[in-house]
Every structure is written in structure tokens, then in C-alpha cells.
Amino acid sequence: MYESYYGLSAKPFMLRPDPHFFFGSKGHKRAMAYLEYGLSQGEGFIVVTGEVGAGKTTLVRNLFNNLPADQFVAAHIVNTGLDSDDTLRMVVSAFGLPYEDTSKTALLRRLEQFLRSCDKQGKRALLVVDEAQNLTSRTVEELRMLSNFQTDEKSLLQTFLLGQPEFRATLHGEDMQQLRQRVTASYHLGPMEAGETKAYIEHRLHTVGWKSNPSFSDDAHAAIYAYSGGIPRKINTLCDRLLLMGYLEELHAFTEAEVNEVIRDIQQEFTRPAAEANAAHGAGHDALAPADGLYNLDYLDERMLKLEKCVVSILAMLKKIVVTPPHSSHSSHPSHPSHPPVGR
């Protein structure tokens, strides 16, 4: 929508992780070094923790994006709120293997055969488990048992665990001693600093052909950092809305005032009216707004898409009104058929 207005080849601030936009901040570079070290060990677990939206998934996808496809086979699991048996099925399914109507013993045998087949082909199998903070102790133990698949020389499966900060507390539990002994690398990914936040924004813009249109003043960058705290996902959400507003209001320069206006809009949208909040509290659950106040990414993307479609429709209606000449009240035989009502 705003891409063509600003001469951009694509949207620079999508919410979904995309290694194409990977930005090597100081923390991300250090985390990447730990991941590469852990990967070089060829066994055990690699743990990456960080705040919501800190860029953990993008980090790992960037790592995998640079791996030779003929040497690695990677599987990614996101839904971790499952019991141990269902998690095993998800692992099997993530590697593209049949998993329905099969006993646990058969699933384990099928997975082992697959891993041995990969090894014979000279490939390493990698498993990425996202949202690891949701894993139960039994599920963690199930994943640990999968690391027992090995030959005489090496392990057949290496696992990446990505989670929010509370997963660090889980790892230090009394029942996690065996897992801790198999962790070959661990890193906590923190937020970016103010200077890195500015560089991150400009990096994403340059990736899609930005030519300093629109421009961002220093106080605009300061306001973005103050709101986002250096968290990439919050930066993306704010900047995407900022560019949309710039397109609608035909702006080519952003200052603190425009940034704060968009921040107020975002805060108003995600602050429910008191009556609605009380009703939701009485019901005990809101599918769209979890208790921690964090919205589902798919929901946010869908909401943004609907908003953009609505704006496009309004602009199309306005253009029709502006360019369509009024019919003469004295003409009983108009030369063009009348337009049907808009939206009918």
C-alpha cells in the first residue's frame, strides 16, 4: 500500500520473522556466535532465551538460511502446549514423516530410521522447538530422550530450544539436571540500544530500496526507542503504522509528533473500554487478548490487512467522488448510465 508511494520494493516492517531482514546488533552477533559454536559441537541442546519479539526465531532462521541445504535437515515446532506423546508426533510430522494412527513405539522407530538415513546421506538433523517456556517437565524429558539417538561416533539429532526469559528458571529446576548436562551453548538475547534501534530501522528500510523518503528526525528515532525499548517486534509494529499514516496524510518526513500520534492510536486500539474489560474479566477468557496482554501474531497481521483494505476502499470511493462529474439536472437523457450506489 505505502510501498509504491515511498518507492519501496516491499514492506520493511512485517511482523513475521524473515531472515532476509536480519540485523546484526551487538547482541544478535554474539548470539549468532554462540549458535554457531553450539552447532559445531554436533550434539546436545542449544538454548536461546529472550523477551517476546526480541528476534529469537529470526536469529535461528538466519543461521539455517546460511547452512548448506545438502548437509542439514531442519524441522521447526511452534506449538509446545502439548503432552509428551503429542510432542513426539509433532517432531515426527515436522520432519515430514507419517504420524497418524501409530503407536509411540512405532513413531520412535520411524524417527530413528529417518535420522540414521540422514546420517548415511551425510546430513545432520536439527530440531527447533519454539516457545520452550510452555514445555512441561515430561515433554522436556521426551525431547531429551530423543537426543539418545546416536551412532558409535556421533549424535543423530541436535535440538535448539527457543523461549522467553522464564524458561531459564525452568532449566534450573531440580528435575532438569540431565537436560542441563546436555546443553552445549546458551545465550539470552536482550533488547537493542538506542543507536542500534536507529540502525535497525534504517537497515530494514535500505533492504527494500529506501532513498531517505520518508526521512526520520532524531527526535522521531528517540520516540520510537522510548516506546519499543529496543524490541524488534515492537519497532516493526510502530514503524509499519507510521509509514501507513505517512501515506494516508502524504507525509515525507517524520518527527516526534507523528510518532507519538501513532503510539496513541496503538495504545487506544489495544485498551479495551471498561465495560468490555469487565465483561471479559467476568467470562474469564478472551481468545484474542491473552492474560499477559500479548496478541497473537496471526491476529495482528489479519487485523492490519483488514485495516489496509478498508483504507483502500475509502480512498477508491473518494477518488470516484472527485473525478466523476455531476450530472446536469436539466438533462433528461444522460450520455452515460448512472453508477450504482457505492458498496452495493
Number of strands: 7
- Global shape: elongated
Question: Helical stretch count?
Answer: 13
Q: Could you tell me the radius of gyration in angstroms? A: 25 Å
Distance between the termini: 24 Å
Poorly predicted segments: 285-296, 328-344
Largest beta-sheet details: 5 strands, parallel
Note the quaternary state here. single chain
Order of helices and strands: HEHEHHEHEHHEHEHHEHHH
Mean pLDDT across all amino acids: 82
β-strand percent reads 5-15%
Strand order of the largest sheet: 2-3-4-1-5
Structural class: alpha/beta
Please estimate the helix content: 40-55%
Describe this entry's structure for a reader:
It contains 13 helices and seven strands. The model is unreliable at 285-296 and 328-344 (pLDDT under 50). It is elongated, with a radius of gyration of 25 Å. With 344 residues, it is an alpha/beta fold. Helix 5 links the parallel strand 3 and strand 4 (157-163). Helix 9 packs parallel to helix 11 (256-269). 27% of the residues are buried.
Can you describe this structure in just a few lines?
The chain has 344 residues and is of the alpha/beta class. It is 49% helix and 10% strand.
